[in-house]
Amino acid sequence: MKPATCVGVVGLDYGDEGKGKIINLLAPHFLYNPRGGGADNAGHTSQIGAEVYKLSLIPSGVMYPNVVPVLGHMMAINPEVLLKEIDSLENRGVSTKNLVISSYATTIMEWHLLEDGARESSEGGKKIGTTKRGVGPAYKDLIGRYDAIRIEDLIDEAMLREKIKSVFPRKKEMLEKLYGVTVDLTEQGLIERYTELGRRLKPFVRKDVSYMLNRALNEGDSALVEGAQGTLLGIFSGSFPNVTSSVTTVNGLCEGTGIPRNRFTCVLGVTKGGYITRVGGGPLPTQLGTDEQLRQEEEMRKKGVGLQLTDEDFEKANAGDEYYQGKVLRLQGNEFGTRTGRPRRTGRGDLVGLNYSIMINGVDALAMMKIDVLSGLDKIKLCVGYTINGETTTAYRPGHDLEIARPVYKTLDGWGRMSRDEWRRIAKREEKLPSNAKKLVTEIEKLTNRSVVLLSVGPDRDDTIQLKDNIF
Ligand code: IMP
């Protein structure tokens, strides 16, 4: 038996760490690129040369003809979104013929979208700030069991008809009576629409994904297993209730693929490390600037004002104004949702959250992303503890405690403003990393007791420095 490489890639923050770029970089060295869970709430941008691809369901490995991208058991798949993604890849010359979809994944139906939208905008309803892609309602039906339509049902015409006939009237009643939504859908229309979607997806569907992947690993083939969202957004691991509805840790990779934890030869954790971002609601103890300031910034952006950073923004940031520090990170890091365009809240690097994520995932090594985004900030503060009710702790307690946690900081020196070209030369090893950037990496390694094996210094795949040899 040849030794197989099975690498898990998990997000350690609140999503948007840059997992897509890491997968994109590593995927050509692997045969399988499965994804465990999540839905089209995730978005990853892959850039190859000048071509930018925005994917939300299909793993980035699809870009490489020899890689087999797999949508795992724990995914919630909106068939319409998946087919659009398949069509748009094909139209741009990227073949999807290797794609495999687990028959046990669940389906996001139109009524899930309506429920997500209605729940989020209902008066008095406590908002989570979801992506409104129907994720929560679809997983609710899966866990509740009665009303889920799994991919195996979608591709079986008789079963699909039966399921829609039994589930739709209940959903319609719930939407109309509970949320006052006008449901402009008919049973027959739904049956026809979803039958056609199932027919198109059927050739990709397999019942034996767990066996396929384990057999491949037994035979010495390799797998790059990707997570979606981040650990701090996980249903069990994250800051409930402002979380997504799936398991975002390495355990989700196991459940979603059937690959047991002890087959993973390396778990690579992806983090921005030097700063953090979060979209939607929920506590972010190191947040820079208030929600109201962010709302005003969004209003101005809609009017075309404040789209570029100015010297004044940097001056204010370096005079100590936290909102401007956050703005520098947001604009320099293009921290706007891939799927929704929503501006992300930005905050200082949170080592409390990071160490918790490293612990529960059993992370072996780190990929540290977007260090270039910190350029131009005189001081870089890292959160090394929280004060909660007068007590200082280094534990991340993702419930009510997080809402009142106040950060304890360690301050490092930053480095000056730098151009894209300068970072490119650094990526090509023509120039050295600024010494204070190197110190930041070393400090993060010290505080996490993990090596940073990959350091990302810009948006392109090539803007990445491998800091250690033989990383897997
Ligand atoms: P949902 O997954 O659409 O139900 O949203 C639940 C929470 O997770 C919201 O705060 C979303 O903004 C957040 N979320 C979901 N997917 C992502 C992602 O890919 N990146 C960052 N945040 C996400």
Keywords:
11-stranded mixed sheet; 472 residues; single chain; 18 strands; globular; alpha/beta
Structure description:
With 472 residues, the protein is of the alpha/beta class. Helix content is 36%, strand content 21%. The protein has 16 helices and 18 strands. The chain has helices at 19-26, 79-91, 110-121, 135-144, 151-154, 157-179, 187-201, 209-218, 250-257, 291-302, 311-318, 322-332, 351-361, 400-403, 420-427, 435-448, and strands at 6-11, 32-38, 44-48, 51-55, 68-77, 100-102, 106-107, 205-206, 223-230, 266-271, 275-278, 345-350, 365-368, 379-388, 391-393, 406-413, 451-456, 464-466. Strands 1, 2, 5, 6, 7, 8, 9, 10, 13, 17 and 18 form an eleven-stranded mixed β-sheet that branches. It binds inosinic acid. Inosinic acid is lined by residues 15-16, 41-43, 128-131, 133, 135-136, 229, 233, 242, 244-245, 279-281.
Short synopsis of the structure:
With 472 residues, the chain is of the alpha/beta class. It has 16 helices and 18 strands. 49% of the residues are buried.
List the helices and strands and how they pair.
Layout: E1 6-11, H1 19-26, E2 32-38, E3 44-48, E4 51-55, E5 68-77, H2 79-91, E6 100-102, E7 106-107, H3 110-121, H4 135-144, H5 151-154, H6 157-179, H7 187-201, E8 205-206, H8 209-218, E9 223-230, H9 250-257, E10 266-271, E11 275-278, H10 291-302, H11 311-318, H12 322-332, E12 345-350, H13 351-361, E13 365-368, E14 379-388, E15 391-393, H14 400-403, E16 406-413, H15 420-427, H16 435-448, E17 451-456, E18 464-466
Parallel strand pairs: 1-9, 1-10, 2-5, 2-9, 5-6, 5-7, 6-8, 10-13, 12-14, 13-17
Antiparallel strand pairs: 3-4, 11-12, 14-15, 14-16, 17-18
The chain binds inosinic acid.
